[in-house]
Amino acid sequence: TETLADADAQVHQHILAELHRQQNTLEMIASENFAPTSVMQAQGSVLTNKYAEGYPGRRYYGGCEHVDHIEQIAIDRITALFGAKYANVQPHSGAQANAAAMAALLQPGDTILGLALAHGGHLTHGMKLNFSGKLYDVAAYHVREDDHRVDMDEVARVARERKPKLILAGWSAYPRQLDFARFREIADEVGAYLMVDMAHFAGLVAAGLHPSPVPHAHVTTSTTHKTLGGPRGGIILSNDADLAKKFNSSVFPGQQGGPLEHVIAAKAVAFKFAAAPEFAERQQRTLLGAQILAERLLRDDSRAAGVNVVSGGTDVHLVLADLRDSPLDGQQAEDLLHRVGITVNRNAVPFDPRPPMVSSGLRIGTPALATRGFDAEAFTEVADVIATALQTTPDDDAALDALRDRVDALAQRFPLYPNLTEFGR
Ligand code: PLP
Question: pTM for this one?
Fold first, then answer.
């Protein structure tokens, strides 16, 4: 019955400070979002106490009658949401989902083909220090230098040359849609599995605002906490009964022990939200916000300051600002926006001349602000603050203070978690 504040004032203080940071700044990290309080309530429940190795109806522990219902609800909701036949909702994260899906289909040493990390791919798509780069032989495809779009001719060419066992379509930093049908054609031609990692754009797919990879891929993985707006976690979707069995045994006992049933309950709640009309409306505002931002960063004043936009715009929830011609590098630009109260991450742009730790880009996403209620007018204001900041020198305190005031006004206009004044009570 002891509250967190009483039991551990130190940790409580830091959580409270983080709540205030989230409330008083503008979160524009493209992979982040704000989970509803009901999702956090499920995640903070007694389910954290329960062991439930196995799957609903087939557990290795007693007392699973309630968690069985919860996990089955999560499975039923996510399969309905994405029109998939089978789902595994146990992966602890997106990386775990990818590790399990690959382990089910591949042997160590097999070749995988994914988007190069420097061109927007994810660590789990073959980075050399990641399990994917250590276990598998990695081939990569890239975006074209002129239009920054994935070069499907290169995908086909490298696939024919390297004969991968698995082709990965998906990204962490790419502002356009992928041609899943063409990826599948290439996979079929060379006898590879097609795996789509929709971690970033799953919410847009759920809302019908982005083509679905599920009919095309042998397996689709995702996180549940980015555009999808749920608790941190992963899922694996498929349409083939034999493959689905392999994915299940690859997650447990292959990769994980006991599932996090408190997180699975929170996933179930989030999947219910994702099927509602309000969710689709929010994803629409997410896309609109990204388009407004791209347009603002392409205006003459920004271009004159050396700011550009990768691929000349966006079809998704993020914009990649291209600072290759700007005196600011990615690190300086990230710090400048932090100073005015906007949180983003620096990111390499394709063909980046600066080293990765500094980089020449910013990845700027709109999902969290859309969840906060931002509309076209508010996105226009935040886009103008960002565009102005990127033309300001870091020592111009007066200009940066004025931008910080505009950010404060937006944060106040769109309150976040207004009832969570004292976390846990
Ligand atoms: N896949 C993609 C495309 C991602 O962008 C990410 C996270 O950034 C992941 C997988 C990994 O997810 P997690 O951080 O939950 O392991």
Answer: 0.97
